[in-house]
Amino acid sequence: MSVQTIGLLTSGGDSPGTNAAVESAARRIWERGGRALGVREGFRGLIDGLITELRPEQIDGIGAHGGSFLKTSRDARIGQDDGRERARGVLRQAGVDGLVVCGGRGSIALGVARLMECDVRVVALPCTIDNDIPHTEASIGFDSACNKAVSLLEAIRETGRAMGGRFFVVETLGGDTGFIALETAYGAWADAVIVPEFEFDLQRVAGRIRSAVEARGYGILVVSEGTGHAQQFTDALQTLLGVRGRATALGHSQRGGPPSMRDRFLGRSLGTFAAEMVMCGESGVMAGMHEGAPSLVTIPRVAADTRRLDVRRYQEVNGLEDPPRMSIQKNPSGTSQPDRRSP
């Protein structure tokens, strides 16, 4: 039996736990007698031929670190005929039999779907802090991002207790989805949350914040970046409430730092499984978690379906009795938010 050569590639925004997936996949490839190649800088590196052989001493322990050991990027050329032809040539020259691709929804639904046309087996891994990929219980990186956000929000809460008579607006990452914002708001007992998926009544939000300030001296609103900037909400609420407000945008601090234990577990479990599957001949599938165990789902199904927010949790945070209406994703200024998803 010939030695199988498997390439490892990370695409899109970095997420804690991706390195754990890369390390575990490489280890399994070596255990099965294969060669592990690293594709540097995502799809751009694939198209430009930035492929190197990985050695055990290079990847030993990288799973404990955030970021991406292989580096990552977004590159629309993989969706173009010329880009795919160049990628096909690079893969053929390197003797690559299969690829394990770590990335978010855009990378999987768009990029991996195009890679399937390059005469190589492909298994994807859901690596994104946004947690917007369907058919997996969680994406690699989501838990770490939420833990970081909750920790920072609790620090803000301590300031609120010490300096009363004000409210705080905390903006999380999440692109055009509200999974991080909702999980953070729920886990840290925020007074309200605003996400792109649902319509919101700013007057009602203001009422929630006013009640919190009157009851305990401070209020907390969590907003997802896809709904607008924290400062926009702060300015609007200050006008409505006549109370001092402070805006905090967590930004890319949520991406960095070491992965949580949960994301290390997901990275190792899914990375090992993905390497095993691609070496066994599987292709055009994503490895996700289902009922606590790795499983496969086809890429077309991932691309076609949508992950939904927990409506009951959203109602509980906002004190709503009736289910919210779906949103057209407008921020406080009334302008629509863009869809930032790309390979």
What do these coordinates show?
By secondary structure, this protein is an alpha/beta fold. It has two domains: 5-141 and 259-304, Rossmann fold; 143-255 and 310-318, Phosphofructokinase domain (Rossmann fold, 3-Layer(aba) Sandwich), CATH 3.40.50. The chain is built from twelve helices and eleven strands. The chain has helices spanning 18-31, 42-48, 56-59, 81-94, 105-115, 142-162, 179-187, 202-216, 230-241, 261-279, 299-304, 311-318; strands at 5-10, 35-39, 51-53, 98-103, 121-126, 166-172, 192-194, 218-224, 244-249, 285-290, 293-298. A seven-stranded mixed β-sheet has the order 3-2-1-4-5-10-11, sandwiched between helices. A four-stranded parallel β-sheet has the order 7-8-6-9, with helices on both faces. Strand 10 (285-290) and strand 11 (293-298) form a beta hairpin. Helix 1 (18-31) runs parallel beside helix 10. It starts with a strand and ends in a 25-residue tail after the last helix.
Which properties best describe this structure?
343 residues; alpha/beta; Rossmann fold; 2 domains; seven-stranded mixed sheet; four-stranded parallel sheet; elongated; disordered C terminus
Structure described in brief:
This protein has 343 residues and is of the alpha/beta class.
How are the SSEs placed, and which strands pair?
Elements (H helix, E strand, L loop, with lengths): L4 E6 L7 H14 L3 E5 L2 H7 L2 E3 L2 H4 L21 H14 L3 E6 L1 H11 L5 E6 L15 H21 L3 E7 L6 H9 L4 E3 L7 H15 L1 E7 L5 H12 L2 E6 L11 H19 L5 E6 L2 E6 H6 L6 H8 L25
Parallel strand pairs: 1-2, 1-4, 4-5, 5-10, 6-8, 6-9, 7-8
Antiparallel strand pairs: 2-3, 10-11
